[in-house]
Design a protein that fits this description.
- The chain has 240 residues and is mainly α.
- The protein has a single domain (2-239), classed as Rhomboid-like (Rhomboid-like fold, Up-down Bundle).
- It has eleven helices and three strands, in the order E-H-H-H-H-H-H-H-H-E-E-H-H-H.
- The chain has helices at 15-32, 38-45, 50-53, 55-58, 63-72, 80-101, 103-124, 136-149, 172-193, 203-218, 231-239; strands spanning 2-6, 154-161, 164-171.
- A three-stranded antiparallel sheet has the order 1-2-3.
- The longest helix has 22 residues, at 80-101.
- It is globular and about 50 Å long.
- Residues 224-240 have low confidence and may be disordered.
């Protein structure tokens, strides 16, 4: 299923969500201009699990060297489809979560989801020598928050059926629940088959990000306080 848009207008203009998308796009264009230096760039600023767990490798990296990729990796992408798919998903789901949390809290929330996803990926792929990049872990956290906040919002989705495509409206809890199931099932299968160290998709980063976003919203961030100037938001939430 490919999300086209949601029928859930945001009560505020999503400045932070748009800024995150712009930064990701700008970084990608920077990657395109690196030429032969790109591989070295990706290996340093992406997450390479083995360099954290193998003492023979980790000794060559300082604490800062090891910390930086946990943040930078979520702003790197491996190709146009990777970038467009992630940014489109963030565009659809991020504005409403930002509207609920507020601009600053949304930014902190997004970064924390990315960090949780990165840590889960490290734990489940400790011996992998492949660099992992992409915003999908952080975006999965946004999707987890959306799942909690707007389970009945309608997601206009493109669904392939054999050689044909159809467009249908699906409740968010169905769309996001199915997406999470696919990530969990694929991640479990990858570990069971021994393919987890060699596959190109960070399934458990997606699972960890989604679960992290859900739990963060339930606990650390809690219900957003509705300010007087945002009374329209309270009315909007009662309708959703």
């Amino acid at each position: 299923m490919i999300p086209l848009r949601d029928k859930n207008p945001s009560p505020v203009f999503p400045y932070v969500n748009i800024a995150i998308i712009v930064v990701n796009v700008l970084v990608f264009f920077y990657e395109l201009h690196l030429g032969p230096l790109l591989q070295r760039f990706i290996f340093y600023y992406g997450i390479v699990p083995v360099r954290y767990f193998d003492p023979r490798i980790s000794q060559y990296f300082s604490f800062v060297d090891q910390l930086v990729p946990l943040f930078t990796s979520m702003f790197l992408h491996g190709g146009w489809l990777h970038l467009i798919g992630n940014m489109w998903t963030l565009y659809i789901f991020g504005d409403n979560v930002e509207g609920y949390l507020g601009h600053f809290r949304y930014f902190i929330f997004y970064i924390l989801c990315g960090l949780i996803a990165a840590l889960i990926h490290l734990i489940t792929n400790a011996h992998s020598q492949l660099p992992t990049i992409g915003a999908s872990g952080a975006i999965a956290g946004v999707m987890g928050a959306y799942f909690l906040l707007y389970p009945h919002a309608r997601i206009l989705s493109l669904i392939p059926i054999f050689f044909f495509f159809t467009i249908v409206e699906i409740p968010a809890y169905v769309f996001l629940g199915f997406w999470f199931f696919i990530q969990f099932f694929s991640g479990t299968f990858a570990i069971a088959s021994g393919a987890n160290q060699f596959g190109g998709i960070a399934w458990w980063a997606h699972v960890g990000g989604f679960a992290g976003g859900y739990v963060l919203l339930k606990t650390v961030f809690g219900p957003a306080t509705v300010r007087g100037k945002d009374r329209r938001w309270s009315r909007f939430r009662k309708r959703s």
